[in-house]
Structures are given as C-alpha cells and as structure tokens.
From TrEMBL:
Pfam families: Gelsolin. The gene is vill. It comes from the Eukaryota. The keyword Transmembrane helix does not apply. This is Gelsolin-like domain-containing protein. Belongs to the villin/gelsolin family. The lineage of its organism: Eukaryota, Metazoa, Chordata, Craniata, Vertebrata. Keywords: Actin capping, Actin-binding, Calcium, Cytoplasm, Cytoskeleton, Repeat. One of its GO terms (molecular function) is phosphatidylinositol-4,5-bisphosphate binding.
C-alpha cells in the first residue's frame, strides 16, 4: 500500500462503532454523525461498522464489515472509486473485514440494521451541500414516502397528492413542522416506525425544534387543522388515491439452492466451475484458490484463500446486486451458516470451558454456578442452561390421551413407545419460573403426540401461560433436559413404562453411555450387536445373568457406576460378552478425542401475517427492541430454535411459525437436523438461555402497560401546536 493511501486512512477509527464516507471528487470525505442514514441518490458511500462479539476463551472478538453503497443516479467513476477505496481499506485493516456491495433499494439486512430509525433517500448529490448541517435551517419542503415495518426506507417524491397511496405512510416535511399521514391500510407497527423516523429528523436535522403532527388517512375529519396545512401545500385532495403497493420483501427465510463455484485462470482465461451444491463442507475451500457461493441468485459471497493473489473477482461479480467479499479467516456468520460444519482457528472444542474432555481419569468436572448464569445471561445462552438443574421436577406420561403421573422412583426412564410431559420449576429473581418439556418417543402414535401437545396447553393454562414450552424429539434431548435427571437418564428404544403393560422380553440389551458429568450424561438403548460398539464410549450390556460395563479405549464419558457390574476393557472381552452380542463384528474405532461444536452466530426472524399473508423476515444485528409484541419471532441458535410469542400475536401466526420453523430446518442449506429442539417462549417469561443471546436485556421492558409505552408524539390526533 502506498504512503498516500496510508495517509488517507490515518483517521479511520478502529474502535467499535459506525463510520461513513462519501465519494466527492474521487476522494473519501467523512460524513457527520447527524447525517447518518441520509443517502443522496446521486452519490456513493462507504460505510464501515466495527463490532465486538463474545468469546468464551478471550472475552470479546472484534470484527469489521465494509459496505460500499451505490446510489441509483451515481456515476460510473464514483462507483469505481468506491470499490477501489473499499479494497484499500480492507487491506489497511489487515484483510479481515467482510466487504459488501449495496445498491439503493436493495440493501442487505445487515446494512439496514445500522440505521434503526430507517434510511432516507435524498434527491441530488454532494452538490446539494450536505457537508455542513445547520440544525436551525427551516427552509425545507419535501415529501417522504415511507415503506417497511422492520427496516424503514423514506424516499423523496414529488410534493403532490399524486405521490400518495392508501397503504403507505408519507411525511410532509416543511422545516418547522412535519405532518405524518398514515394510509388507511397501514398497520400499527408501520405507524410507530414512521413516528420514530419523524422524531429522528426533528432531533438530528432541526435541533429538536420542529413540531410533529399525525393524520389518520381513514379519519381525516379528526385532524382539521393538519388537513388545512396539507391542503395549503399540496392543494385539494383528490377523491381517490392509488391502491397500496407491495413492499416486495422476500418471503423466503433462506434460499435453499446453494452452489459453490471454483474461480481460477486457465491460459489467461477466467474459468468459473461448479464444484458442489448443498450441503457444503469446509474442506472444499483451498487456501490457494478463490470461490463463489451463489445463494440462488439472491446474493453472492466471494471467498479468497489466504494464499491467493488473484484480483479479478471484483469484475466477475459486478452484475450482482448484493455481493460479499471475504478472505480466509474473516468469514461472516452468514457464510459459515451455509456450511454443515465450520472450524475456526483456535476454536474451542467439546463443551468449551465447562469441562475438559479426555479420558475418564482426567475429566475435570467444574461445578455449575447458577448465580453466574443469572448475572451473565449470555453465559446461560452459550451453555444452554437456565440454572444448575437443582429445581423441582414432575413427570407425566400420556395414557389413553390423558395425563398419568409417573412414579418418582422411575424418573429418568423414558420409553420409545410413550410420550411424556416434564414440568421443571426453578427460582429466578425471587419468582417461580417454569419449563415444560414435551418428550416424544420415536414409536409413539400420532394420537399420543397430539394428546401430548393438547395436555401441554392445559398445563400451560394452569400457570397462566408462564411455562417455556420445549418440544423434545427422542434422541435430541437438550443439555438442560439431561441435567435435571442428574446422570440417570435412560432412553429405551421401544416399549412402554405403563405398569399395567408387560413389555416383551428383548433378550440382551445394550445401552450407549455418553457424557462428561452428571449434568450431561445419558444412556441410550441401541441394537444389541457388536457393530453398535464405539471405541470412544462406554456401553452397558445387560443379559439374563450378567451386567457388563464395557469401556472403549478412549471413552469421553463421565465415570459410570460400576456397582453390580462386571467391568470389561476394550480388547479384553470374555467369550460370554461376544456371545450375548451375537458374535464379534467390526465397529466404530476412530479416535474421536474431542467433539467439535461448529460456531454459528444466532439469527432472528420476524414471523408475521399483518400484510395479509404469512412471511418470515430476518432481522440483522438484532436487539430486544426488535421483538415485536404483535408477532412471533424465531431465534435460531443452531442447536435450538426459540419461538418467541408476542402478547399481541394471533393464533394463526403461532401455528404458521411452528410449521415454518420446521420447514426452515428441513430446507436449510447446511442440511440441519430436522429434530432440532423447538422451544416456545412467551413475552415476559423469557429464560436466561434466551435473553443471553441479546445484548443488554431489560427484564422490566414489558412490565409497563403497553398504552404507556407508545412512541412519543401524537399518534392519532392533532398535537397542541396545530390547535
């Protein structure tokens, strides 16, 4: 990098936060913070966001995203300059940032997330003189067309009634006054977002001195003074306005047609060759090469190996709307989500810092600190534990569609032919909290599964909707479920636990034991054959005359109870052991000393049918404020799916969200496990393993009456200054 380039980036701030530059006469010119969110259609911008993410090993980790934004009326020279500066800035920052190409009107969710109050598209370019912001200037007349529910955009349009329609919201900005006109078909969420945008304009551009008024388009008679103002500026209102226009948001949570292309040069010619489709694996990426990941045309990601020196990729991807460019080691969370597994350098293995995984004699069992979980909910989220599992447990079994209490002496025994409800009660901040697990046996009937869901609703109603509901599929038990049974969880492949039913004699039974402590150990019945053994685990073989405890050569498990059992080490098995298993046979013998947990950042989706049809929209860089009380939100933490139910969400949204979350897992590009636990969380009853995924969670946010929390300013009648 030249000295001149180094000088141009000398004022770049590497601390967490947002920085924006515009391209003026082919130079990067800083944009003042008061103007963040305002974009001139004739210009190009460079937006850099530096953020920190939790890292259990090192505290926090810093990452950067660099976007270059292209206005629809910007020149080719400005676009080229922006692309060059982004490449140089990336190099200046060590090549680790992720680069994004953004086009006006088609910005990525991450880009929009930086501007919580919305984007404003302004006519003109740098010649309009936005460099100096005077908060006392009121000589303004413009009409802003506001669209969107989560990510709001406001575009300058002709100051005329001809620009209006019935479904959107319009801001008539007259400098000293801003009138918000709500289309008759707009909804509450859109109105609140528009008020926030109007307040943002007032506070940042007018120094807080402008007045705001709101007109409801379906009840204009209640705002005669405001209508006089609008008529004076716009002229008489026509008899009919245009119908609402579609927001044109994608209904798909993800594009499940993902392809990987290898990009290389052959005899001076550029070659783009498809090498794989989903599910993708990390070993397909070679450090010496370049690759393109195409998400069904919706966006393109370019990956450069750390030993690659090619510079032709900027040309090859110019025709795409959204483009991300990243180098090896600086991959974005979304990129990693497309791969079935991903391992970062110096990645934590197994269960992280909670346990050191190794041979039995070396297992370091660290006591769970429940107070630390409540004090640091992000730890609860990472460990997927709401507490230390010392609360009260009650178990029911479904029998003839009714609930039957299970004998506490048999707690922890689950049969594949049954369905169970497990109610866990614990204390948090002096209040009782509840988790209701719905365990579904692999061989249970459809009627039993339906009855299990029905009875779960009944129990939920008994506690006024307070329990967090968790759907658990046999064999996919979450960590906290294992912990509440204190290492005594046994899963029988079939049969039933009903006392009145005699299960057929299965002969020899073989159980695979996995776990590193009583908090995460379970025994699962497998086929009683030698091929079921695994050198990495412990197995319990029960026959009519003997109970064998078999240890593989490198078992990564908690020390099992050896009482009344004959201990057998791998390679020293007696003849009767093999006879009980039907003879010797090959079995898994790869030494898996540590189980790698792929690091995947959480993703939040809004599930809503307020537009008339159900859709799921991703919320990037999410926070608690993004949880919409009128909707259902889906939080994907990879190992679990949370469905957060807002107090004002309707039943159709809840039903659609469940089926869509299941479809989301089935169609995920990384071939996710369709039986991933789905956890229902109701607004106001969030457990710490949910709140921990949000920064600065406010537990008192929803304890105030909703009518007292409306966004400031008038929302349905005239404000005092117009009366």
């Amino acid at each position: 990098m030249s000295d001149d380039t180094q000088d141009s980036f000398r004022n770049v701030n590497k601390k967490p936060g947002l920085q924006i530059w515009t391209i003026n006469k082919m130079q990067m010119v800083p944009v003042q913070a008061q103007c963040f969110g305002n974009f001139f259609e004739g210009d190009c911008y460079i937006v850099m966001c530096v953020s920190t993410t939790p890292n259990t090993e090192k505290g926090t980790r810093q990452s950067a995203d660099i976007h270059y934004w292209i206005g629809k009326h910007s020149s080719q020279d400005e676009q080229g300059s922006a692309a060059i500066y982004v490449t140089q800035l990336d190099e200046y920052l060590g090549g680790t940032p992720v680069q994004h190409r953004e086009v006006q009107g088609n910005e990525s969710p991450r880009f929009r997330s930086y501007f919580k109050n919305g984007l404003i598209y302004k006519k003109g370019g740098v010649a309009s003189g936005f460099q100096h912001v005077d908060t006392n200037v009121y000589n303004i007349l413009r009409l802003l067309h506001v669209k969107g529910r989560k990510c709001v955009t406001a575009t300058e349009v002709e100051v005329s009634w001809n620009s209006f329609n019935k479904g959107d919201i319009f801001l008539l900005d007259m400098g000293k006054a801003i009138v918000q006109w709500n289309g008759p078909q707009s909804n509450r969420r859109e109105k609140l977002k528009a008020v926030m945008l109007a307040q943002d304009i007032r506070d940042r551009e007018r120094g807080g001195r402008a007045k705001i008024g709101v007109v409801e388009g379906n009840n204009e008679r209640d705002s005669p003074e405001l209508m006089k103002v609008m008529t004076k500026v716009l002229g008489p209102k026509p008899g009919q306005l245009r119908e609402a226009t579609s927001d044109e948001e994608s209904d798909l949570v993800q594009k499940n047609n993902v392809r990987l292309y290898h990009v290389f040069q052959n005899s001076g010619n550029l070659v783009v060759q498809e090498v794989a489709t989903q599910p993708l694996t990390q070993d397909l990426l070679l450090s010496s090469d370049c690759y393109i990941v195409d998400k069904n045309g919706s966006s393109v990601m370019v990956w450069k190996g750390k030993h690659n020196i090619s510079n032709f990729l900027n040309i090859s991807t110019n025709h795409f709307t959204r483009v991300e460019v990243m180098t090896e080691g600086g991959e974005s969370a979304m990129f990693k989500h497309l791969f079935k597994s991903w391992k970062d350098k110096d990645q934590t293995h197994g269960l992280g810092t909670t346990y050191s995984v190794g041979k039995i004699a070396k297992v370091d069992q660290v006591k769970f600190d429940v107070m630390e979980l409540h004090a640091h909910p992000q730890l609860a989220a990472q460990k997927r534990m709401v507490d230390d599992a010392s609360g009260d447990v009650k178990v029911w079994r479904i029998e003839h569609v009714e609930l039957v209490e299970v004998n506490p002496a048999t707690y922890g025994q689950f049969y594949g032919g049954d369905c169970y409800l497990v109610l866990y009660t614990y204390q948090r901040a002096g209040q009782q909290r509840y988790i209701l697990y719905m365990w579904q046996g692999r061989h249970s009937t459809a009627n039993e599964i339906t009855a299990c869901a029905y009875q779960a609703v009944n129990i939920d109603n008994q506690f006024n909707g307070a329990p967090v509901q968790v759907r658990v599929v046999m064999g996919k038990e979450p960590l906290h479920f294992l912990a509440i049974f204190k290492g005594k969880l046994i899963i029988f492949e079939g049969g039933t636990g009903r006392p009145s039913v005699v299960n057929p004699d299965p002969g020899a039974r073989l159980f695979q034991v996995r776990g590193t402590s009583e908090l995460n150990t379970k025994a699962t019945e497998v086929i009683a054959r030698a091929s079921s053994l695994n050198t990495n685990d412990v197995f319990l073989l029960k026959t009519d005359h003997m109970c064998f405890l078999w240890y593989g050569k490198v078992p990564c498990v908690h020390k099992a109870n050896q009482r009344d059992k004959r201990v057998v080490m791998e390679g020293q098995e007696p003849a009767e052991f093999w006879v009980a298993l039907g003879g010797k046979a090959p079995y898994a013998s790869d030494k898996r000393l540590e189980r790698e947990e792929p690091p995947h950042s959480p993703r939040l989706f809004e599930c809503s049918n307020q537009t008339g049809r159900f859709r799921m929209t991703e919320v990037d860089d999410f926070a608690q404020i993004d949880l919409d009380e009128e909707d259902v939100m889906m939080l994907d933490t990879w190992e679990e799916i949370f469905l957060w139910i807002g107090n004002m969400a309707n039943q159709n949204e809840t039903k659609e969200a469940l089926s869509s979350s299941q479809e989301y897992l089935k169609t995920h590009p990384a071939s996710r496990d369709p039986d991933t636990p789905i956890i229902f969380v109701k607004q106001g009853h969030e457990p710490p393993n949910f709140t921990g995924w949000f920064n600065a969670w406010d537990p008192h946010k929803w304890r105030v009456d909703p009518s007292q929390r409306e966004v400031g300013g008038p929302t349905g009648s005239e404000s005092d200054e117009y009366k």
